[in-house]
Amino acid sequence: xxxYRVSVLTTVYNGMPWLAEAIDSVLLQREGxxxxxxxxxxxxxxxxxxxxxxxxSRIDCLFLSHQGRGRALNAGLQQCCAPLVVILDADDLxxxxxLSWQLAVMDAHPDxxxxxxxxxxxxSDVTQKQTTDNDFLDIPPVSLIxxxxxxxxxxxxxxxxxxxxxxxxxxxxxxxxxxxxxxxAKQGSRLGLMSPRLFYRRIHAGQHFERKxxxxxxxxxxxxxxxxxxxxxxxxLDAFWPCLxxxxxxxxxxxxxxxxxxxxxx
Length: 266
Prior knowledge:
Blueprint: E1 6-12, H1 16-27, E2 34-41, H2 47-52, E3 59-64, H3 69-79, E4 84-87, E5 93-94, H4 98-108, E6 114-120, E7 137-138, E8 155-158, H5 159-164, H6 176-186, E9 191-200, H7 214-232, H8 240-249, H9 253-264
């Protein structure tokens, strides 16, 4: 088995509108010593046939009956053989320098378990030029209540830290990433954020947080944040944040986008 520096993991269910571009963004990385694990969670839209047509030796495909994303992610983690794991959702894109830059930071900080890059919401904002700056901001556990900047598609993680918490919670229908950050922080993992925008996040109508079940998604988000309050709160005012996030989620999407840009993109 090749001695890969990092494994990239993408799970997909009926992702053909975006999947080819996502895969291309991984295969065009400047850092070439990686394994790419693609898990098809029982797609019915031609995804399986497309994945079977790929011939790059770095790609390992796993085909499942439809089992849900938690099981698909954990099945993919079982296929990952490198000590570091990078996540890319099937509808997102990564900068060609993402792997090389995140690997440099993780190599320079062996006590860092989880590192996210910032997120670009416009393709033109994706960082294209790497520097030697390996600085990052520590994300304390209390930030998981408030303004944690950990993006699933921007994450690189040590596989050992994931194994210590038994990976993703397969019983969850959504917010698997937010739940994972809480469990990692609870076990003492060090979390960090680097400022370059090393991936592009697509926003489209098919995403679960904008579907008809939005109320159940918002309630699940409240419950996750409330668990963070119970574990990491440093002030009675911390209980305010889950309520604020719930109210924010009930706003019309255009107003939410405006407020998000004003608050996070400052």
